[in-house]
Design goal:
Layout (H helix, E strand, L loop, with lengths): L1 E5 L7 H14 L4 E7 L18 E5 L2 E4 L3 H12 L7 E8 L6 H4 L1 H11 L4 E6 L13 H17 L10 E6 L9 E4 L11 E6 L5 E6 L12 H6 L2 E7 L6 H11 L1
Parallel strand pairs: 1-2, 1-5, 2-4, 5-6, 6-7, 8-11
Antiparallel strand pairs: 3-4, 7-11, 9-10
Helix pairs in contact: 1-5, 2-4
Main location: cytoplasm
InterPro entries: SurE, SurE-like_Pase/nucleotidase, SurE-like_sf
Organism: Mameliella alba
Length: about 260
């Protein structure tokens, strides 16, 4: 198996090493793992692509490349430059430092990389490691994803329904904020919503007096509906959420059609 990996935390992020080990286990001794990751951190860029300016890419090792762009840029670089004559069998993105459950999924560059791979017609999975009191200060905060990552990806690939045309499915996997031994299991869960917390900005001033705004995240332990991804993560479960790039609210189509008929 040939696997392309990327992330949004950058080429030197510890989660990328975790993902490389997961990919190596999946690929096997006769497989290949190729890395095309951002040269610098790209957290929060979602599915951004560098449409209006070029992306510099540098080869760091035999199968490792750094690109000055977003995770989606890196996937494009991997598919159409680095591996243009040898398409990968699978694209993995992560392992993100922090969760991409609930509304975080909409901001996530990690998911942006997986989404781009799916739009290019390839199987794709995004993996993220929730941080919390039980693992944030641990020697290895990624222990849960490192221990259970390969098995989770194998299970997804084995259960993935055949692609029936249209937008290709991709998967959002979030590992809970607990040590590997305390993981309760794996469950399929819908995307949740932290209703009482949102991203915001905080103003500050530089020494020269110029005003800047820092983006602040919300409380990552805020409640979501029972059984949704963040809820189950906080209960110790690995969550698997199937996703599509189709943003249509299909449930509202008929009522809107009636309104405009």
């Amino acid at each position: 198996m040939r696997i392309l990996i990327t992330n949004d935390d950058g080429i030197n992020a510890p989660g990328l090493k975790v993902l490389s080990d997961i990919a190596a286990e999946l690929a096997g001794p006769s497989g290949e793992v190729w890395t095309v990751a951002p040269a610098f951190e790209q957290s929060g860029v979602a599915h951004c692509i560098s449409y209006s300016h070029p992306t510099m890419i540098a080869q760091l090792d035999e199968r490792t490349f750094a690109a000055e762009g977003s995770p989606a840029d890196c996937v494009l670089a991997g598919l159409h430059d680095v591996l243009k004559n040898n398409a990968p069998d699978l694209v993995l993105s992560g392992v993100n430092r922090g969760n991409n459950s609930a509304e975080n999924a909409l901001y996530s560059g990690t998911l942006g990389g997986a989404m781009e791979a799916a739009l290019q017609g390839l199987p794709a999975i995004a993996l993220s490691q929730y941080y919390g009191p039980a693992n944030a200060q641990a020697d290895n905060p990624f222990e849960a994803s490192a221990k259970h990552g390969a098995a989770t990806v194998r299970a997804i690939l084995a259960a993935d329904p055949a692609h029936a045309g249209g937008y290709r499915r991709f998967y959002n996997v979030n590992f809970p904020p607990v040590p590997a031994a305390d993981v309760a299991g794996t469950t399929v869960a819908p995307q949740g919503l932290r209703r009482d917390t949102r991203f915001s900005v905080e103003a500050t001033h530089s020494p020269s007096g110029r005003r800047f705004l820092w983006v602040r995240g919300g409380d990552q332990r805020a409640a979501t509906d029972s059984g949704t991804d963040a809820d189950m993560n906080l209960k110790g479960w690995i969550t698997v959420t199937p996703m599509l790039a189709d943003l249509t609210d299909h449930a509202a189509l008929n009522s809107l059609k009636d309104a405009f008929s």
